[in-house]
Amino acid sequence: GRKLVLKWSMIIITIATITSALSPNKWVFIGARSVTGACIGTNINCIICYATEFSESKDRLIGMTMFNIVAASSYALLYFIAWLMLNSIGWRWFIIVMSLPLIPALALTFLLPGSPRYFLVSGQDDKVVQSVRFMAKLNKKHLPSDLKLSCSRKEDLGSYSVIFGPQHKRSTVTLSVLYFCSVFLTFAFILYQPLIIKNGCSSAPRNQSTRTCSILTQEELIKLAISTAPFAVGNILATVSAAFLGRRLSLRISSFIFIFVIAALFLCMNSTVTVFLVSAANFFGGFINALLWIIFPETFSTNIRTTATGFINSVGKIGGVLGTGSVSVFYYMDPNIVTGLLFTASVLGFVMTLIYNRETKDVVMKDT
Question: The pTM is what?
Answer without folding.
Answer: 0.80
